[in-house]
């Protein structure tokens, strides 16, 4: 899926995986590259039910997350290890952790700060997917990426 591209309706995980894995990762490599000095942050923006969590789950699988990824809606944040044997030689080889955050229930940015946000974004080995980034806009790094999800109209 190209940078900035929207997802139509909630895709099935296997469809999303197929698109993410195509092309040898060249497009994904350039999308994920941020200079390597801090975490890569990708905001997943869209309406309820537009496919953000489904995308995050498929993305995690492509990245080498072995665990079943569950929605972090009620716990706000989940951390997953990226299996280096899966990502060896790929665009994402430098990442050790995938952090999935759902900011939907966050009322004040301080809530995310209390979860260690500042430390998370300093670590260049972290890849952070954050649903509802607009809820914590003041904390999102300027070099973050965005993917817009939309329902088909």
Write up what this structure looks like.
- There is one protein chain.
- With 153 residues, the protein is α/β, with parallel strands linked by helices.
- It is 29% helix and 21% strand.
- The chain contains six helices and six strands, in the order βααβαβαβααββ.
- It has helices spanning 13-21, 26-32, 52-63, 84-87, 109-114, 117-122, and strands spanning 7-8, 40-46, 77-81, 97-102, 126-131, 145-150.
- It has a six-stranded mixed β-sheet with strand order 1-6-2-5-4-3.
- Helix 1 packs across helix 3 (52-63).
- The longest helix has 12 residues, at 52-63.
- Residues 1-22 have low confidence and may be disordered.
Please tell me what the overall shape is: globular
Mean pLDDT reading: 79
Radius of gyration of CA atoms, rounded to a whole number: 14 Å
Biggest sheet features? 6 strands, mixed
Structural class estimated from helices and strands:
alpha/beta
Q: Please trace the helix and strand order, writing H or E for each element.
A: EHHEHEHEHHEE
Percent helix among the residues? Answer: 25-40%
Count of extended strands:
6
What fraction of residues sit in β-strands?
A: 15-25%
Low-confidence stretches: 1-22
Please report the number of helical segments: 6
Q: Calculate the terminal CA-CA distance, rounded to whole Å.
A: 20 Å
Describe the strand arrangement of the main beta sheet, using strand numbers. 1-6-2-5-4-3
């Amino acid at each position: 899926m190209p940078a900035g591209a929207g997802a139509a309706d909630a895709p099935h995980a296997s469809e999303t995986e197929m698109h993410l894995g195509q092309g040898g990762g060249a497009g994904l490599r350039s999308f994920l590259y941020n200079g390597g000095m801090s975490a890569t942050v990708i905001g997943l923006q869209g309406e309820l039910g537009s496919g953000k969590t489904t995308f995050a789950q498929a993305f995690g699988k492509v990245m080498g997350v072995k665990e079943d990824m569950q929605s972090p809606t009620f716990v706000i944040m989940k951390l997953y290890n990226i299996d280096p044997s899966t990502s060896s030689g790929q665009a994402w080889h430098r990442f050790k952790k995938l952090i999935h955050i759902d900011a939907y229930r966050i009322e004040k940015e301080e809530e995310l700060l209390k979860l260690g946000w500042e430390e998370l974004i300093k670590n260049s080995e972290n890849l952070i997917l954050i649903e509802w980034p607009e809820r914590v806009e003041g904390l999102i790094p300027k070099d973050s990426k965005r993917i817009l999800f939309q329902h088909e109209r």
